[in-house]
Amino acid sequence: MQAPRPQARNMYPFIHIGSFQLGTFGLLVWLAAVIAGIVLHLTFARDGVDADAMNVVVFVLLAGIVGSKLWHELQSPAELRLTLHQIFLPGRAHPMEVVGGLLEWLRAGFAWFGGLLAGIAMLLWQGRLAKPNGLLGFRAGVRMLDLAAPAAAVGYGIGRIGCLTSGDGDYGRNTTSWMGVHMAKNALVRPTPPTAAVLPTPIWEFAAAMLIAYAIWRLGRHAKPLGWITGLYLVLSGVARFLVEFYRINPRLYFHHTMSNAQVAAAASAIVGAVLMIAVRGNPPVGGAAIPAQPVPSAAAS
Fold this sequence. Notes:
Elements lengths: L8 E3 L2 E4 L2 E4 H24 L5 H22 L2 H12 L6 H12 L5 H19 L6 H30 L14 E3 L17 H20 L3 E2 L2 H17 L7 E3 L4 E2 H20 L4 E2 L16
Parallel strand pairs: 1-4
Antiparallel strand pairs: 2-3, 5-8, 6-7
Helix pairs in contact: 1-2, 1-6, 2-5, 3-4, 5-6, 6-7, 6-8, 7-8, 8-9
């Protein structure tokens, strides 16, 4: 007698507590920010950096959300114009409908690469302000990138679980295997057909992100050339995203319809990271117990 096939798990975009409705995506993004803030605080404490970790994380999170949304929407300007037209169609006479439409629009449609670029830009700026370990200017920004790499990996991984529970289209293709999951009826993007079980690829990304964070944290305990840790993060995260895209439902747009937009961006990330690691490998080590003393010049010394 054939054993019954295991039932696929259900994903739910909302948690209902009485009449109160809590979005699981927002909850997981909040949790990602908190855990990333803790990891960054521990990194600052380990490397002797006097900066507010949670303040850095909040700014990077906001920049990442804006950047990922813009990147996604600007891939199809005509569709964006049509969407905004529909949102503002009720006019000033119905402001709540317009606000509701905007909130609904902001619930889905984010691109990983846009968030990565915006987050990098914000970290460079935060580094210039914080002057970690006495470094100044662009070097200070790169140092902040190195310090934030483990926290970025952790935050990304936890956020991916929120993508899965909300059913925003980040899951994989249809499957009949034991690992399949079902999207709820009110998921942001339903599978085709809606009752199909799909591969939970965000869970794979979560596992990869935790491994990347652990590896980078361990390596960061020892002195490395400035920017080397950032390069390693770009390589590892790019390779992980490149591989998982083979199982995702994203449309194949490039190289004779064999690679998705995110896959090309992930490959570019890995290449840039590898070039960065090679370019800085001969530079003096920075970090861990070998941080060189570089005090900020005072007015009296100038």
